[in-house]
């Protein structure tokens, strides 16, 4: 754990909230949820105290729109889809310390209301009347999810609020050729009195965050472009029935804007953590002390997280510190086209994971992650990764190693290492150094990490090929035994190195190598250790990525505390009084979830706006 001037430093990792207007598909799962999980697991392995949190974006206008289409209550839609999203994340091994349901949490709503009231008290919100789009047919103002047109910055199709193509904000009223999403009609302009946040007044907070926090070049370029112009004012309230009530007289027919809410949303989630619940002001520790906050989200949320939210925080409390880093991603596509539920162009995470291994999926998603450019998911490529890489190369080496270990007595040999061992082990140490960089905030790259894991296996296979000449030769028995011990060091190193991306596989391999405890509790090693001579070895002779055979033993689960147990889905529908946020158990069995893609037509959740890709 890092010590800074006598203070313990912890990490708070956040993932942008999925909007529970539908199920979670692989485009959402790929990032930021997998990215945050990989980062958190690595931080814990290097001895840092890391907490990983997220929640549903329950009050989004997309939830209200879907509820109206289905003829249901928005709270029910948010609760049901939120429970299914929670289950999909758990089945993918995404181990969150907290996944909250804001719409079911009086504590959460109370926090947001107090935050908003503080802004009012500090004159950080301005009342003004502007002309806004109004749909005559639907008899309502059209905003955010209810409005669509062309972006005035890049001319791409955009909903109200943010353009997914260029990442720049809009106020809805400045869209070109706007149309009501519900009826398709052209809205007229009518005066609307709202509360607005004067973003330009607090631009110094965005500039400070931009100067201090780590951002990848693509994100930095966008923020620099945004800061080169006067920053637009932001509506803090919207004419809606769904959402958190505005704590100000005269706004009974409006709610706090869901996008404006997302800033204090992260503070409210911190307030829901168990250690904060019984400690007034406990949420402030990560945001005002020496803790490090790292946020993971999609490209179309860069403006919100790097420009808008720091400004809102400064207006609320100048002591709040910005995150030390932002991990962002580009669009993730399916078969070359954007994930789309309206065209049936999606793969639901829950259904997919009932048919495929979670570790194989995590590895492939990391391997093709859209870190600096848009990338693509195809079933053929996923199957090729599983068949040709994980089974054809990883399992092929590990099964052969298992058979040779059995022949050698089922334990780590006590023999001198061959002369070529130092060079091979130095290469392993070098790969661990590269992996440390790829798992760190500043160099974070699951894609490079996945390729480095494969390189560990390839170096081990080459070492084996070079030393196979000693097999069956009595005069070279000690050399053969020493070479086997070196290969076991590579297997041990693979288990450690793979733990952030493939936690199930890594834990099983770690235990099969005779190591004590779970690999998640092991410490990261910059200089991977040799296995202890005489340690009993029980590697799988059938592989780790082949389909399970009847009667085969399941992989042992990672240890979890009582605080990490996911409640039954039925419990989600009744709002608890204080236990608003529920942690996700990464090893919980997938419960009865949603129908298969062919059976369900509801749209997938819009994560991180907001959409996670």
Structure in words:
This protein is 40% helix and 13% strand. With 613 residues, the protein is α/β, with parallel strands linked by helices. Helix 12 packs across helix 15 (446-467). The chain has 18 helices and 20 strands.
Low-confidence stretches: 1-8, 548-582, 585-613
Structural class: alpha/beta
Helix content: 40-55%
Q: Main β-sheet, in a few words? A: 6 strands, mixed
What integer is the average pLDDT? 88
Percentage of β-strand residues: 5-15%
What is the β-strand count?
20
Number of helices: 18
Distance between the termini: 32 Å
> Biggest sheet: strands side by side, in what order?
16-15-3-4-5-20
Q: Rg to the nearest angstrom?
A: 26 Å
Principal-axis shape equals: elongated
Topology overview:
Elements: E1 3-4, E2 7-8, E3 10-15, H1 26-45, E4 49-55, H2 61-70, H3 74-91, E5 98-100, H4 106-121, E6 126-135, E7 140-141, E8 147-150, E9 157-159, E10 176-180, E11 188-197, H5 203-212, H6 217-227, E12 234-235, E13 237-238, E14 255-256, H7 258-272, H8 274-277, H9 284-288, E15 292-298, H10 302-316, E16 325-329, E17 332-334, E18 337-338, H11 349-355, H12 358-367, E19 375-377, H13 379-407, H14 421-439, H15 446-467, H16 477-498, H17 503-512, H18 569-572, E20 581-582
Parallel strand pairs: 3-4, 3-15, 4-5, 15-16, 17-19
Antiparallel strand pairs: 1-2, 5-20, 6-7, 6-11, 8-9, 8-10, 11-12, 13-14, 17-18
């Amino acid at each position: 754990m890092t010590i800074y001037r006598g203070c313990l430093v912890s990490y708070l990792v956040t993932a942008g909230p999925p909007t529970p207007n539908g199920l979670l598909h692989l485009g959402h799962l790929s990032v930021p949820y997998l990215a945050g999980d990989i980062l958190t697991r690595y931080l814990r392995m290097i001895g840092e105290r890391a907490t990983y949190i997220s929640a549903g974006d329950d009050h989004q206008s997309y939830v209200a729109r879907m509820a109206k289409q289905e003829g249901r209550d928005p709270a029910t839609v948010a609760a049901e889809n939120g429970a299914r999203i929670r289950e999909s994340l758990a089945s993918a091994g995404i181990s969150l310390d907290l996944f909250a349901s804001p719409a079911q949490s009086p504590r959460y709503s109370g926090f947001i209301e107090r935050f908003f009231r503080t802004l009012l008290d500090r004159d950080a919100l301005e009342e003004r009347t502007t002309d806004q789009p109004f749909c005559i047919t639907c008899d309502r103002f059209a905003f955010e999810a209810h409005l669509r047109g062309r972006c005035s910055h890049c001319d791409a199709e955009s909903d109200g609020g943010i353009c997914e193509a260029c990442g720049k904000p809009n106020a809805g009223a400045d869209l070109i050729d706007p149309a009501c999403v519900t009826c398709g009609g052209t809205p007229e302009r009518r005066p609307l009195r709202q509360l607005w946040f004067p973003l330009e007044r607090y631009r110094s907070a965005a500039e400070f965050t931009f100067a201090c926090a780590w951002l990848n070049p693509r994100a930095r370029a966008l923020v620099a472009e945004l800061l080169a112009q006067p920053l637009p004012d932001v509506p803090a309230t919207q004419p809606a029935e769904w959402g958190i009530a505005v704590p100000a007289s005269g706004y009974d027919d409006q709610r706090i804007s869901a996008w404006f809410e997302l800033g204090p949303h992260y503070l409210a989630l911190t307030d829901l953590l168990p250690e904060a619940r019984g400690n007034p002001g406990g949420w402030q520790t990560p945001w005002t002390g020496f803790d490090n906050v790292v946020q993971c989200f999609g490209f179309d949320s860069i403006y919100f997280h790097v420009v808008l939210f720091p400004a809102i925080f400064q207006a609320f409390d100048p002591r709040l510190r910005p995150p030390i880093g932002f991990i962002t991603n580009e669009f993730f596509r399916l078969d070359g086209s954007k994930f789309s539920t309206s065209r049936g162009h999606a793969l639901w995470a829950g259904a997919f994971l009932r048919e495929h291994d979670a570790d194989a999926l995590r590895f492939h998603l990391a391997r093709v992650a859209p870190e600096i450019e848009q990338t693509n998911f195809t079933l053929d490529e996923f199957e090729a990764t599983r068949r040709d890489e994980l089974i054809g190369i990883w399992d092929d080496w590990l099964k052969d190693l298992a058979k040779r270990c059995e022949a050698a007595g089922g334990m780590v040999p006590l023999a001198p290492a061959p002369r070529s061992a130092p060079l091979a082990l130095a290469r392993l140490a070098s790969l661990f150094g590269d992996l440390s960089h790829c798992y760190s905030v500043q160099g974070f790259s699951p894609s490079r990490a996945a390729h480095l894991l494969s390189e560990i296996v390839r170096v081990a296979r080459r070492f084996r090929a070079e030393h196979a000449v000693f097999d069956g030769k009595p005069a070279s028995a000690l050399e053969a035994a020493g070479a086997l011990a070196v290969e076991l060091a590579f297997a041990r190193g693979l288990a450690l190195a793979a733990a952030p991306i493939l936690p199930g596989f890594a834990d099983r391999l770690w235990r099969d190598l005779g190591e004590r405890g779970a690999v998640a509790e092991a410490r990261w090693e910059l200089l991977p250790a040799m296995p202890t001579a005489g340690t009993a070895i029980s590697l799988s002779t059938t592989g780790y990525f082949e389909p399970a055979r009847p009667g085969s033993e399941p992989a042992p689960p990672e240890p979890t505390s009582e605080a990490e147990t996911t409640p039954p889905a039925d419990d989600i529908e009744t709002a608890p009084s204080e236990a608003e946020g529920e942690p996700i158990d990464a090893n919980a069995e997938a419960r009865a979830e949603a129908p298969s893609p062919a059976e369900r037509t509801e749209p997938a959740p819009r994560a991180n706006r907001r959409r996670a890709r």
